[in-house]
Amino acid sequence: VPTPDVIIDEVCKFYNIEPSILRGQGRAKDISMARQIAMYLIRSMTNLSLKDIGKEFDGRDHTTVLHSIERIESLSKTDPEKTEILKDITANSNIRYE
Q: Which helix (H) or strand (E) holds 76?
Protein backbone atom coordinates (compact mmCIF):
# COMPACT_ATOMS: atom_id res chain seq x y z
CA VAL A 1 0.00 0.00 0.00
CA PRO A 2 1.54 3.33 -1.03
CA THR A 3 1.83 6.10 1.53
CA PRO A 4 0.02 9.41 1.05
CA ASP A 5 3.43 11.04 0.49
CA VAL A 6 4.21 8.70 -2.42
CA ILE A 7 0.83 9.40 -4.05
CA ILE A 8 1.17 13.16 -3.52
CA ASP A 9 4.68 13.11 -5.01
CA GLU A 10 3.43 11.30 -8.12
CA VAL A 11 0.53 13.72 -8.61
CA CYS A 12 2.93 16.64 -8.16
CA LYS A 13 5.32 15.21 -10.74
CA PHE A 14 2.47 14.77 -13.22
CA TYR A 15 1.20 18.35 -12.74
CA ASN A 16 4.68 19.82 -12.24
CA ILE A 17 3.86 21.49 -8.92
CA GLU A 18 5.48 21.43 -5.49
CA PRO A 19 3.97 19.19 -2.77
CA SER A 20 3.68 22.22 -0.47
CA ILE A 21 1.49 23.94 -3.09
CA LEU A 22 -0.64 20.83 -3.59
CA ARG A 23 -1.16 20.47 0.17
CA GLY A 24 -1.75 24.21 0.63
CA GLN A 25 -4.73 26.51 0.19
CA GLY A 26 -4.20 27.53 -3.46
CA ARG A 27 -7.42 27.63 -5.47
CA ALA A 28 -6.12 27.84 -9.04
CA LYS A 29 -8.03 25.42 -11.26
CA ASP A 30 -5.09 23.13 -12.07
CA ILE A 31 -3.93 23.03 -8.44
CA SER A 32 -7.44 22.23 -7.21
CA MET A 33 -7.83 19.46 -9.78
CA ALA A 34 -4.45 17.97 -8.86
CA ARG A 35 -5.36 18.12 -5.16
CA GLN A 36 -8.71 16.43 -5.78
CA ILE A 37 -7.03 13.69 -7.81
CA ALA A 38 -4.50 13.17 -5.01
CA MET A 39 -7.28 12.91 -2.42
CA TYR A 40 -9.17 10.45 -4.62
CA LEU A 41 -6.11 8.26 -5.16
CA ILE A 42 -5.18 8.30 -1.48
CA ARG A 43 -8.72 7.24 -0.56
CA SER A 44 -8.82 4.46 -3.15
CA MET A 45 -5.32 3.12 -2.45
CA THR A 46 -4.93 3.44 1.32
CA ASN A 47 -6.97 2.72 4.42
CA LEU A 48 -6.90 6.36 5.55
CA SER A 49 -10.14 7.91 6.79
CA LEU A 50 -11.54 11.09 5.24
CA LYS A 51 -10.41 12.96 8.36
CA ASP A 52 -6.85 11.61 8.06
CA ILE A 53 -6.70 12.49 4.36
CA GLY A 54 -7.83 16.02 5.26
CA LYS A 55 -4.92 16.28 7.70
CA GLU A 56 -2.52 15.52 4.83
CA PHE A 57 -3.87 18.58 3.01
CA ASP A 58 -3.39 21.46 5.41
CA GLY A 59 -6.06 20.23 7.82
CA ARG A 60 -8.97 20.23 5.42
CA ASP A 61 -12.37 19.13 6.65
CA HIS A 62 -13.52 15.57 5.89
CA THR A 63 -16.47 16.97 3.88
CA THR A 64 -14.00 18.74 1.56
CA VAL A 65 -12.20 15.43 1.04
CA LEU A 66 -15.50 13.65 0.38
CA HIS A 67 -16.50 16.31 -2.18
CA SER A 68 -13.15 15.89 -3.95
CA ILE A 69 -13.47 12.11 -4.10
CA GLU A 70 -17.04 12.30 -5.41
CA ARG A 71 -16.05 14.89 -8.02
CA ILE A 72 -13.19 12.76 -9.38
CA GLU A 73 -15.38 9.62 -9.36
CA SER A 74 -17.99 11.50 -11.37
CA LEU A 75 -15.46 13.00 -13.79
CA SER A 76 -13.71 9.67 -14.34
CA LYS A 77 -17.03 8.21 -15.51
CA THR A 78 -17.83 11.03 -17.94
CA ASP A 79 -14.44 12.42 -18.97
CA PRO A 80 -12.07 9.94 -20.64
CA GLU A 81 -9.21 12.43 -20.22
CA LYS A 82 -9.54 12.26 -16.42
CA THR A 83 -9.51 8.47 -16.52
CA GLU A 84 -6.31 8.62 -18.58
CA ILE A 85 -4.75 11.07 -16.11
CA LEU A 86 -5.49 8.68 -13.23
CA LYS A 87 -3.94 5.80 -15.19
CA ASP A 88 -0.91 7.89 -16.21
CA ILE A 89 -0.17 9.03 -12.67
CA THR A 90 -0.36 5.51 -11.30
CA ALA A 91 1.48 3.93 -14.26
CA ASN A 92 4.45 6.24 -13.72
CA SER A 93 4.92 4.98 -10.21
CA ASN A 94 4.83 1.84 -8.16
CA ILE A 95 1.21 2.51 -7.22
CA ARG A 96 -1.67 0.73 -8.89
CA TYR A 97 -4.97 2.25 -9.93
CA GLU A 98 -7.86 -0.15 -10.36
A: helix 62-78
Helix, strand and coil content of the chain, in percent to the nearest 5, comes to 70, 0, 30
Query: pTM for the whole thing?
Result: 0.94
Please give the DSSP secondary-structure letter assigned to residue 53: H
pLDDT tens for each residue of 19-59: 999 999 999 999 999 999 999 999 999 999 999 999 999 99
Task: Determine the Cα–Cα distance for residues 28 and 10; give it in Å rounded to an integer.
Answer: 19
Q: What is the dihedral of CA 18, 73, 29, 3, to 10 degrees?
A: -10
Dihedral sign (CA 74, 80, 83, 89): negative
